[in-house]
Amino acid sequence: MDTRTPRLRRLLRRAFVVPAVLFVLASAYVTVVALRPDAQAAEVTRAGVRQDAALWPASWSRRFPGCVAVVLWPRAEAPKAVLLRDGSGNVAAMTVRDAGMRLRLAGPDDQVRLVGICR
Fold first, then answer.
1. Within 10 A of 99 (CB to CB), how many other CB atoms are there?
2. Is 70:114 a contact under the CB 8 Å cutoff?
3. Which one, of 99, 114, 93, lies nearest residue 45 by Cα?
4. Residue 94, Cβ density class (10 Å: 0-12 exposed, 13-18 middle, ≥19 buried)
5. CB 66 within 8 A of CB 119
6. Using CB atoms within 10 A of its CB, is residue 113 exposed (0-12), middle (13-18) or buried (19+)?
7. Contact in structure between 88 and 97 (CB atoms under 8 Å)
8. What is the pLDDT along the chain (119 residues), one digit of tens a residue?
9. Residues in contact with 112: Cβ distance below 8 Å, sequence separation at least 6, in sequence order
10. Nearest in space to 115 (alpha carbons), one of 39, 63, 37
11. Residue in 74, 56, 72, 55 with CA at minimum distance from that of residue 64
12. pTM for this one?
């Protein structure tokens, strides 16, 4: 019997098993890193609207009296208006209906965020 056959099997096993194991480990690492939440990531509400977790500047309180950050709004109270911030940093007050339409029509590159709610 030829002794090269077991050696060939071992060589082929090493050639295919080691890269396969490395591929599985690398894939698992990339998946874990991709699914890890960012420390500065925005929160998502039940409606799927992204909200900035940024601080509420005092200038917004002066400019929009009666408005507070989304995280401070009591769920039991119905809002009369909301504040939206676009990608260029402009903040605008809108009715809930208009803001909903704008958020639905905004694409992922528009970076429109819900930042405040008003009484």
1. 21
2. yes
3. 114
4. middle
5. yes
6. buried
7. no
8. 556 677 888 888 888 888 888 888 887 777 776 665 543 344 444 444 444 445 678 888 889 998 888 888 888 888 899 998 888 888 889 998 888 888 888 777 778 888 888 98
9. 84, 85, 86, 87, 102, 103, 106
10. 63
11. 56
12. 0.51
Residue with tokens 């009484």: 119
d(CA 38, CA 9): 46
Quote the tokens at residue 114: 């819900």
Q: The tokens of 4 are what?
A: 């090269």
Alpha helix stretches (DSSP H) within 36-67? 58-63
Other beta carbons within 10 Å of 116: 26
Phi, psi torsion values for 106, nearest 5 degrees? -70, 135
Tokens of 10: 């071992």
